[in-house]
Amino acid sequence: MSVRVVVVDDHPVVRAGIVGLLAGEEDLDVVAEGADGSEALALVEQHRPDVVLMDLRMPRVDGATATAQLQQSHPDVNVVVLTTYESDADILRAVEAGATGYLLKDAPRQDLVEAVRAAARGETVLAPSVARRLVAQVRGNDQRLTARELEVLAAVARGRSNAQIGTELFISEATVKTHLLRVFTKLGVDDRTRAVTVAIERGILPSR
To answer: Cα(170)–Cα(110) distance, rounded to whole angstroms?
Structure first.
């Protein structure tokens, strides 16, 4: 039986390219295309695919958020993130959301095809560089930022004050300060600006 695939990407040309790559495979059937996470949720409900190829950064509902919601509503659907980004923050969000795989858009065609097949079987598929980052995170777990610390630091990078961060994340300003102190310790810095700079240099936060 064919593997039923939904492709989700906010760039029409990229989306068409991905669909074209899969079209030549007799055992892969692209049943629908979407432009953001909210469309992904509706398309999965309608078409019940085996695999969703999910872009990460999209308007309205991003890929990680949609993946987490799909894990709740359709845990039998396997999500493979397909993105140009490979920062620690992006990888961690996707993995914690429940993604079965994480691939980069510069992956060779055959690697993408085989990844879809593997994901349909429930196997984990990771780009080599992503796998290396995950291994490094596990080995340095004591110094790895938690998901919440990453959220706080990302908000700092966007120019948010402690009070604004607390409001966005539904935590107290004192809790924000505690998270920041832990971030400073783990990164070996003593101020917000340096924390963001070091995080970007190390690939913990995206550079843009």
So the answer is: 44
Contacts of 203 (CB under 8 A, 6+ apart): 86, 87, 88, 133
In a 3-state reduction of DSSP, which class is residue 75? coil
63-107 tens-digit pLDDT:
999 999 998 999 899 999 999 987 777 887 888 888 888 999 999
Query: Parallel, antiparallel, or unpaired: how do β-strands 51-54 and 28-34 relate?
Result: unpaired
Quote the CA–CA distance of 40 and 21 in Å, as a whole number: 20
Q: In what order do the strands lie in the sheet with 51-54?
A: 28-34, 3-8, 51-54, 78-83, 101-104, 125-126
**Coil, strand, or helix at residue 103?**
strand
Entry pTM: 0.68
Q: How many CB atoms lie within 10 A of CB 122?
A: 10
